Amino acid sequence: MAKKKFTKQALSQWMKGEGPDSDVVISSRVRIARNLRNQPFPLMASPEQSSSAMEQLLCVAESGRLNGLGKIEQIRMSELTELEKLVLVEKHLISPSLANESRNSALILSPNEDISIMINEEDHLRIQCLSPGFQVREAWETASKIDDIFEEQVDYAFDEKHGYLTSCPTNVGSGIRASVMMHLPALVMTGQINRILSAVTQVGLAVRGVYGEGSEATGNLFQVSNQVTLGQSEQEIIENLFQVARQIIEHERSARGKLLDESFLRVEDRVRRSFGVLTQARIMDTKEASQRLSDVRLGYHLGLLPEVDSLVLNELLVSMQPGFLQMTFGEAMSPEDRDRSRAELIRSRLVTLS
């Protein structure tokens, strides 16, 4: 079945190439929220109404108008197991909200998983485009083209004063959420992170964890995104995020240089100690694994661990998560079993590099 290929591999094809500024920015994402005119929004729709909205949007995909994306796959959420949904969340292909909603919801995926279109999540339509490294402008261009394709075929809920209407008031207006996933270990280690993040929030941006709102920023990974969608054009939103992210990248690189100049031996000891633990440990929980992989990633980009493969580090971000672990080992696991299997998986991927 088509869905299997999306849950079998931890690393999406789009993540196998290093994008610009990938020493700091893991990935860039743009998500567009849209709803159908004269249709109740998903949270208020009856089963019949949500089914009608889903079929209407799937028809756009079936019409062939998205053929430029490659051989797209349509997956109805009712076809997926709870574990398969969890894996798709861990790969950032669907939101936790869509994973919890199986009634008349669907997913459209491009072959290399850089485009994910969610149907009947919080809104009727969520168009998500992902790019490796710092490519938020490129992700926006792709998302905008897909949005135009749908808008040619369906009537969006739109108000002349407020713009595109959405279930959540914070998305009203442009309906755009643009974000960059950033690895900021040096800012954390030098004690600058709170000052930087405080400045970011003052210019209309939000900082969250790896899985968005409500998630913890584990492994020194931070998701920086726009907070305002009303009263700003799409271009203004993208450019504001771009310029602020560019400044954060420079601050992180400056902090890394400071660490090398002032604390070289301590930094080298830290990254090699973490690498040693990861290649020897028999039990490893998610939080510790995230932190030690963050140290190793920093060591790789500072040239202290040239033997490490950056693609392996990207892969482990997903493959060590609870859902993917259970998918890999083919069984439901207790937390203790997962900690043991996580350590085994990490050892198997890193030990050949040491």
From TrEMBL:
Keywords: Allosteric enzyme, ATP-binding, Kinase, Nucleotide-binding, Transferase
MF-aspect GO terms: ATP binding; creatine kinase activity; protein arginine kinase activity
Coiled-coil segments on the chain, per record: none
Keyword ATP-binding set for record: yes
Pfam families named in the record: ATP-gua_Ptrans
EC number: 2.7.14.1
BP term (GO), one: phosphocreatine biosynthetic process
Positions contributing to ATP binding: 27-31, 92, 126, 177-181, 208-213
Superkingdom, taxonomy of origin: Bacteria
GO cellular component terms, A-Z: extracellular space
Motif (RDXXRA motif of the pArg binding pocket involved in allosteric regulation): 338-343
Classification via SUPFAM superfamilies: Glutamine synthetase/guanido kinase
Catalytic activity: L-arginyl-[protein] + ATP = N(omega)-phospho-L-arginyl-[protein] + ADP + H(+)
Mechanisms controlling activity: Appears to be allosterically activated by the binding of pArg-containing polypeptides to the pArg-binding pocket localized in the C-terminal domain of McsB.
Class in the EC hierarchy, top level: transferase
Start and end residues of each Phosphagen kinase C-terminal domain: 24-255
Family named by the database record: Belongs to the ATP:guanido phosphotransferase family.
Function noted in UniProt: Catalyzes the specific phosphorylation of arginine residues in proteins.
Name under which the protein is recorded: Protein-arginine kinase
Organism of provenance: Cohnella terricola
Gene name in the database record: mcsB
